[in-house]
């Protein structure tokens, strides 16, 4: 049985922590699902960790649909959440609903995630009214990296904090079923979490959120460009993979592979 919106809200009520990770391909998603993670985010972060771009901005709807479809196919238990990419929901309410619907209808996702607060309330309301679960995203919103001037801590000033708190309540009011809080002070995240009936899922927002999310490549130690402060590397697979590939290269060059047991 898939993890549902009802399960998500019940975990908040029962004060049970929610687990979420990103995945973008069949094998990784299958492993995340097998490990019992509640929610898989097919994040627009794939623009950086899969496509090698400097930001999340270049990834397209078609590319996001492609990866979401693969993740859904490889999983049985986790709720699959599709990130709506840059300019897939900002232009108009109608376009936002249409693109959200494509994630559900064509790719099989169970929810969509949108970045922003008061400026996208109409889209959140309309997508929700189209019977599509919406997860919000406040704080550091990577699609706004150009306006924000980089990946920086948000909610530091009293004005910023007030705006984020207000936006969280507004998103809840328009039907959001959860909100991702990214790179904000832990005290602010705690205040927001306690003020909402829907769950908060933190990434760089401290321990008081109802759940946590990380990019799988960061958790596994695969992404070498930079490591944010909020990331804990649970493995260093990059070194293990390099070691295995170098050993293969050496054995082929020396004529040690394939050996007799690998031959017909």
Sheet with the most strands: spatial strand order: 1-2-3-4-5-6-7-8
The rounded distance between the terminal residues' Cα atoms is 43 Å
- Annotation field: number of helices: 11
How many β strands by DSSP? 8
* Model regions low in confidence, pLDDT < 50 over at least 5 residues: none
| Beta-strand residue fraction | 5-15%
Shape, principal axes of CA atoms: globular
Radius of gyration: 20 Å
Largest sheet: 8 strands, parallel, barrel
Alpha-beta classification: alpha/beta
Task: Please tell me the overall pLDDT.
Answer: 97
Helicity range = 40-55%
Question: Helices and strands, in N-to-C order?
Answer: HEHEHHEHEHEHHEHEEHH
Overview of the structural elements:
With 264 residues, the protein is α/β, with parallel strands linked by helices. The protein contains eleven helices and eight strands. The protein has helices at residues 5-13, 26-34, 46-49, 61-74, 93-105, 121-129, 145-148, 158-173, 186-195, 216-219, 237-253, and strands spanning 18-22, 39-42, 79-83, 111-113, 134-139, 178-182, 200-203, 211-214. An eight-stranded parallel β-barrel has the order 1-2-3-4-5-6-7-8, surrounded by seven helices. Strand 6, helix 9 and strand 7 (200-203) form a beta-alpha-beta unit. The protein is globular and about 65 Å long. The N and C termini lie far apart (43 Å). The relative contact order is 0.12. The model has no long low-confidence stretch (mean pLDDT 97).
């Amino acid at each position: 049985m898939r993890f549902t919106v009802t399960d998500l809200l019940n975990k908040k009520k029962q004060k049970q922590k929610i687990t979420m990770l990103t995945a973008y391909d069949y094998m990784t998603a299958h492993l995340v699902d097998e490990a019992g993670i509640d929610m898989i985010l097919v994040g627009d972060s794939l623009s950086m960790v899969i496509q090698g771009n400097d930001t999340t901005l270049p990834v397209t709807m078609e590319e996001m649909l492609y990866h979401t479809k693969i993740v859904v196919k490889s999983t049985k238990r986790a709720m699959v959440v599709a990130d709506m990419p840059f300019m897939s929901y900002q232009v108009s309410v109608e376009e936002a609903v249409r693109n959200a619907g494509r994630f559900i209808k064509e790719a099989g996702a169970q929810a969509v995630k949108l970045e922003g607060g008061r400026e996208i309330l109409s889209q959140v309301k309309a997508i929700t009214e189209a019977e599509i679960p919406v997860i919000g995203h406040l704080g550091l919103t990577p699609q706004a990296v150009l306006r924000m001037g980089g990946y920086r801590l948000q909610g530091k000033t009293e004005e910023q904090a007030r705006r984020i708190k207000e936006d969280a309540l507004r998103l809840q009011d328009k039907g959001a079923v959860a909100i991702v809080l990214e790179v904000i002070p832990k005290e602010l995240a705690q205040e927001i979490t306690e003020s909402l009936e829907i769950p908060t899922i933190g990434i760089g927002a401290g321990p008081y959120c109802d759940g946590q999310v990380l990019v799988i490549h960061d958790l596994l130690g695969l992404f070498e460009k930079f490591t944010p402060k909020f990331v804990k590397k649970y493995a260093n697979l990059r070194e293990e993979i390099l070691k295995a590939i170098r050993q293969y290269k050496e054995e082929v060059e020396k004529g040690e592979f394939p050996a007799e047991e690998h031959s017909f």
